[in-house]
Amino acid sequence: MNAVRHPLIPESHMIRQLVLKDWQLYQKQFAAYVVGLLIGLTLIGAARTWAFYAGGLILLVLLICVGGFAIGTSLLNERKEHTLPFMMSLPITPDGFFWSKVLANTTIYLVPFTIVVAGTAFVVLFTPLPDGILVWSMLIYGLLAMNFFISLGAALVIESEGWNIFVQIATSTLISPFMILLGQVDAIGKRIPTNEIVWSTPALLILAVEIAVMILSIVVARAVFRRKDSFL
Prior knowledge:
By secondary structure, the protein is mainly alpha-helical. It has one domain. 78% of the residues lie in helices and 0% in strands. It is built from 9 helices and no strands. Helix 1 runs parallel beside helix 4 (94-125) and helix 2 (49-80) runs antiparallel to helix 4. The longest helix has 35 residues, at 11-45. The termini are close together.
C-alpha cells in the first residue's frame, strides 16, 4: 500500500517528526537505562575483581535490553496495536517510513551505546585497569551493536513477534562464546593484561566484519521491505 504524500509537507519533515515521536515517547525509560549503565561503568572503574565482573555484566545486560526495548516498543508493539491505518494517513511513503524507523531506533540505541563506549575508554585509560583490555572491550561492544542491527533488520521485515524474539535471543547467545574466542586470539588476548593498546590485524578484521554485517542487515532489510505490500 502506498501512502498519499501531501504536496506542501516535505517527506523529510515527516521522517524527522516520526523520529522525534519515538524519542519523546521512550526517553524516560532510556534515562533509567543510562543510569544503570553509569552504575556499571562506576563499578568497572573501581578496579576490583568483583566490581569489574559485576559492572561488566550490568553493561552487557543493559545494552542488550536497551536494544530489545527500542525495537519492541517502536516496531513490534505498533504491529500489535494496529497503527497501520494511522501511518497510511500520514504524508509519507513506505520507504520514508522505513528510514524513520531505522533512524529512530539507531538514535535511541546509539545514545546509551556511545555513553558506554566513551565511558569504558575513559575508565580503562584513567584507572589502574590494564589498557590492553580496551581493544577487547571495543570488539565486544561492536558485536552488541551488530546484534542490534541484525535484530532491527529482522523486526522491519518479519511480522511474527515469536520469530523476532527468536532472532534477539539467538544473537544474544553469541556474546559469551565470542568473548572467549577473542581471548584465544593471541594478538588480542595476550595484550589484555598489559598496558599496550594495539589494533592488530585480527582485531581490525573482526571490527570490519562487525561493521559490514551492520550495514548489510539494513541493506537486506530495505530490499525485502520494498517488496512488501504495506508498512507493517
